[in-house]
Amino acid sequence: MTLEPAGEPAAWHAAPDEAAALAALIDAAAAADGVAPISGHVRDAVRSGAAQVLIDPGASPDDPAGVAVALAQDPAEVTVAPDRRRQGRGRSLVRAAVERQGAVWAYGDLPAAQALASALNLRPTRVLLQMRRPLPIEPLGYQPPAGVRIRTFQPGRDEDAFLRVNARAFASHPEQGRLDRSGLGEEMAQDWFDPNGFFLAVTDPGDELLAFHWTKVHPAEPAGQNPTGALGEIYVLGVDPAAGIRGLGSVLAERGLQYLAQRGLDTALLYVESDNAPAVRLYERLGFTVFQRNVVYRPTNQG
Ligand SMILES: CC(C)(COP(=O)(O)OP(=O)(O)OC[C@H]1O[C@@H](n2cnc3c(N)ncnc32)[C@H](O)[C@@H]1OP(=O)(O)O)[C@@H](O)C(=O)NCCC(=O)NCCS
Description:
The chain is α+β, with helices and mostly antiparallel strands. The chain folds into two domains: 16-120, Aminopeptidase, CATH 3.40.630; 131-294, Gcn5-related N-acetyltransferase (GNAT) (Aminopeptidase, 3-Layer(aba) Sandwich), CATH 3.40.630.30. The protein is 29% helix and 26% strand. It is built from eight helices and eleven strands. The mean pLDDT is 93. Coenzyme A is lined by residues 29, 33, 37, 78-80, 85-91, 94, 104, 106, 110-113, 115-117, 119, 297.
């Protein structure tokens, strides 16, 4: 199986012109597999030309058979059209993707991805869990300890304190710990940003930030191949490791979940690293269960 018709060497390139055909391919794979093979922000980056793609053109460039996508230094994302599988295309794309990016995501860690990873001597090096629970949530009675008050985020006032605590709380996290002032500004400019759903635990008196819970509402997407209802997310929950007060995570998580329920949402979700045992325990106590496993695979000889 060759990756391209004879005379056209395979090459990574930016592909805003091919974005519509690739979106159709990604939708078809998502509908067949029950999980989107390419994440939302990577799909946006294909459309804007910010990502590089390697396309398996199949029979015609308007109807691509598979794609690997590379964005910045992140693990690549790969999919093959459901009706073009088991023809060696995934193997070629994943091999090229790992050569370029060093790693590849497998959203949902489906049996085909596991089998292909094993055939290519790739091993799981990161497991990101998506956990969910129904809303509303019964009152759990978590109260802030003495000397701590919960208030909501005030744009224009709380950014620097938030970024400081976020960097400390997520010092070892591959993405969240890197958030800076401009990245925060971009998120706050999004339609979904809602300061009333962004809770801060502060000292009282003193108003020193100790911990935060930033919630995010994903609107329903009834159209398309993979329709979903609205979802409320525990987007970022972080406690300053220097705060020295236990229980702030539970207090803030409950407050945010009650807020999402008040907004009429019937499902809450969150993402957590599987090896973050304290966080997984906290979410299990709050009634969350694993909904989906997302795995980063790397060659066995790499760390
Ligand atoms: C994973 C995926 C890319 C494989 O694409 P593909 O073109 O079907 O894969 P290939 O034909 O190159 O398969 C190569 C090897 O992977 C393994 N494999 C692939 N699909 C398999 C399946 N459904 N069951 C068992 N083994 C499978 C086999 O070892 C296969 O070799 P073989 O056909 O000689 O037995 C495709 O199923 C897909 O798009 N899945 C959704 C997105 C995803 O999970 N991406 C992450 C990739 S790590």
